[in-house]
Amino acid sequence: MSDWRLVLVQARAQLTSVSRNRRAIVLSLVIPVFILVMFNSIWGAGNGTSDLGRAKITAAAYFTGAMIAYALVGTAFVQVALSLITQRESGQLKRYRGTPVPVWTFVMATVLRVAVMVGLVTAILLLIARLAYGVDVSGEALAEIAVYVGLGTATLGSAAIAATTVATDVDTASAALPLVVVLLSFVSSIFVPVDQLPGWLAEVGRIFPIYHVAAGVQTALGIAGDTSLRTGDVAVLVVWALASVLVAARHFRWEPHAQAA
Amino acid sequence: MGADAVDSTRGPTGFVPDGRPAISVRGLHKSYGRRDAVRGISFDVAPGEVFGFLGPNGAGKTTTIEILEGYRARTAGDVRVLGADPGQPTRHWRERIGLVLQECELDPNLTVRETVDLFASFYPSPRPVGETIELVGLDGQSDARIGTLSGGQKRRADVALGIVGDPDLLFLDEPTTGFDPAARRGAWAMIDGLRRLGKTIFLTTHYMDEAQHLADRIAILRAGELVAIGSVTEIGAGLRADAVVRFRLPAGVTVDEIASVAASPVDLAGDVVTIRCADPQRVLYRVTTWAEPAGRRLDGLEVLRPTLEDMFLELTTTEPEHV
User: The whole model's pTM is what?
Assistant: First the structure.
C-alpha cells in the first residue's frame, strides 16, 4: 500500500470533519461572501475606483481581491490554527503519533484539505464577483490569482502552525485569533481601500502577509494581461513563510499542555 | 486475511517467535528535573499475559506506561518492548502495538465507523472494521458521530481504535474509567476475549476488582518503586493481610471484654465489632465458645478474607521498608 493512499484517506476524513464543522464553514465561506455582498451593496453602485499605485481598479474588483485574502486568512490561518490546537489539547495529535502513520502523510493531508477548501472558497468568491458585480476574470488573471492564493495559503498555513506554538489552550486561541485577524484586516486595507488609509497605517499593513495576498489578487484582476508578478509582494510572503516554518519546526508540540508532567 | 495473517516476524498469537518476554524492564529510572518519578524498577511481561500495573496517583504509573509506549524518553535503564527499544519507535514496531490512552478525545464530527475505518487504514493487516465495532459493543452506534456518544461509549471507541490494527501487545490505560457497572462487565468480557486471542495486555486501573478479575499477574508501584509483583495469591501470601471477623456488639458487653476473649485487636464502629486477625478460625472458636454458653447472640457474624483492595491499601499507605 502506497503511503500516498494514506494521504488521501486522511485528507478525506479531514474534509468530512470540516464539512460538518459549523465554525469552519462560517469562518471560511459565510463571512467572506457576506462581506463581499455588503461592501458591493454599499460602495459598489457608483463607478468608484481605487488607486493601487500601478493601476486604478473598480471597487468591485478591489473588494473581490480583499475578500479572497480575507477568506484565505479564515481558512488557512484561523481554521488551521484552531483545529490543530483543539486536536493537540484534546490528545488527538498524541493519539495520532502513537499510530504507525508517518507524520509527513498527516501534514500532506492537512495541506491537501486546506488547498481544497481554499480553492473552493476562491472559486465561489470569483464566481459571485463575475456574475453579480461584473468583475472581469480572464484566464491570465486566473493563473496569476492561483499563484498568489497558493503562495498565500502556504504562508498563512505555516503561520498558523507557528501560532499553535504560542497558544496553550483552545479558549484563548479562539478569542485571540479572530481579534488579530480583524486588526490586521483593517491595517491591511481589507475593509478600507488602501488609498483611504492614513499613510503610516498603510505602511504598517505592508509588514504583514494579508496585504500582499490582497494586493496580488487585486492587481491580477485590475490589470488584465500584465502577468508580471509583483516581486515585493512575493518576497514578503516568502519571508513570512520561512520564518513561520522555522518557528514551527523548533517549537511544535504534539502533547496537550494539561498533561505536561 | 486480517487477524490470521502470519509472516516471518509476527506470529498469529502475539508470541514473540523466540519466546523472549513481550516487555522487559531493567532498572528503569526517570527524573523530571530533580524529581524522581520512577526509581529503578524491573519486571518482565510474558507473551500472552495480562499484566496489571497498579499504584496510587502520582506513583509513576503514567510515566512508566508512556515510556513503554514510546512517548517518553527514559533517564536510565534498559527497556525492551516486543524486542525493540521503545525510545526509538519505528513504524514496524508501532504496527504491532495497540494503545488506549488515559485521556484521549476523538474528532467529534466523524462517525464511529469513519473513525475506526481511518485508523484501520494505518495498519498493514487490520481487523475487520465492522467486527471490531461489534466487539466493543458499539454496533448500534456505528453511524453516530463521536460527539454524540456518552462517556462510556467514547471510551469503547478508544478501545476499538486500540485493537483495530490487530496488535500483538495492547496497552490499556484505565480502560473502564467512567463506565457504569454493566459496561465494565462488558469491557471485561471483551478483554477476556482478547486474552483468548493470545494478545499480551498491559493494563492500568484504579479498580482492584478489575485487576483481580483480569490480570494474570500484577505489579504495585508506590512512589516510583515496585512494592509487590506476582499473582494476587502470591502477593497476598507475602503480606500480613489480616482477615476480618465482624459482628454486632451483644448487649451488656464491653469492647475490652471481647478483645481479651479474642486475644486480637478490636475496633468498634457504631455497634459493629471488627476483629483483625491472621487466624480467623481460632478467633471464631474463642468468640463463639465464649458467647454460646452464655446465650449471647453475635448478630451479623461474618468472616471477610482480605481483598486485593486491602492488600493494595496496605502496600501503598504504610511506610516502605528499606532493606
Answer: 0.82
